[in-house]
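Please discuss these two lines.
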Amino acid sequence: MKENIIIYNSLSRKKEVLKPIVENYIGMYVCGPTVYGDPHLGHARPAITFDVVFRYLKWCGFKVRYVRNITDAGHLENDADEGEDKIAKKARIEELEPMEVAQYYTQSYHHAMNLLNCLPPSIEPRATGHIIEQIEMVQKIIKNGLAYEKNGSVYLDVNKYNKQFSYGTLSGRNLKDTLSGTRELDSQSEKKSPVDFAIWKKASKEHIMQWPSPWGNGFPGWHMECSAMSEKYLGKTFDIHGGGMDLVFPHHEAEITQSNACNNCNPVNYWMHNNMITIDGKKMGKSLGNFINLEEFFTGKHEKIDKAYSPMTIRFFMLQAHYRSTLDFGNKALQAAEKGLNKLLEAKNTLKQLLPTKTSTFNVNDLEKKCFEAINDDFNTPILLANLFEGVKIINSIKDRKAELNAEDLNNLKNLFDVFIDKILGLKEQEVVQSNDISDDIMEVIFSIRNNAKKNKDFKTADFIRDELKKKGIQIKDSRDSSSWSQEK
């Protein structure tokens, strides 16, 4: 049943048979989070999408090196070459060290991914841990004549690159289109062209996160980390690169440009992109009041959420749609997904109790073939689930003595459900995340006492309260104007 795996390659814009560069080995790189905020649905979808890819490739017998990065430096606001680093801004507002911010939200991300039953990647490199590799890559691009230094910053010369390579191969953009959509920024006065982008940026004295380089103190461009880290762990050319569709331009296009400019070869054979998420038909955003992080889904603590939804309900709901299609969240749809998941898991448990008969009235091999055809066709999880629900009907018919399966077929059906539900789709029994045991009212009283101590410059008492709460598993986050808290699960 392990036939050719067909995937949609965003680079060629067509379905292709997956042919690994090295036999029985697949290198896969997926863009991970920028860790400056609580994990949300936008983090969950690529994590779940590529977790299924990872699981299935491993089950097929491939040795898979799955690399997922953590962006903890260099990602400026609005994906521009000017502005403030997202993590540095969060650190300034909350009066913390940038690495405190990065560490806190990295742990929060890992906790959420664990609840969603996403396997950890093989390697999870951080941008700040690979500054040397990024500097070396910038130096190679300069040596190849495709980048230039200006006032301590280094820019990739896109027009010059385009004469040697083809710019816009992934996004389909040409230079004329890109120029017309380029924002006018202060730094563009030092660029040869507005389409050029920073691969190393000079740091102002106020910039918190900066490192020494041949061009002075600065920090890497956001795109550079993925090019450098994917090459370090997967080689100059590897099999699969994944991420959200919103990263096609500029991020992934820039990765291709940087790698070609450095190594004179395309970095990736197959690009995979999951589509976007909406909530009640609208794009998710804080300004729209529909920005819901994963913790709020798990506990039901959001005005747009009718109840708490288990992490498995969120995972199952996402798997009901093909990863390349848009996905709209809403209470009715989530409640329907919850019922569907319960039905699937109940049938799986019922299957364990069934006894074989002498004959079979159903062909399990046909169902198995349909399931593998679905997963082999660009990881078509909605069709796969539809086939599994056909299996649910069989199980219920056997339970009601309206159908029969002999010992071999019954064992095959059990194995089929175990393989696809547990090992490939990563679905398990529901676990609702419990709300915090301590009420908000009690915490408001504690915050009031602590804030009064801080106002009276009694920092010893304020720190004592914080430290004692930490011992009880309660984390306090202080910002300039307020404090918030969370309780370890």
Remarks:
- Residues 6-274 form a domain with the Rossmann fold fold (CATH 3.40.50.620).
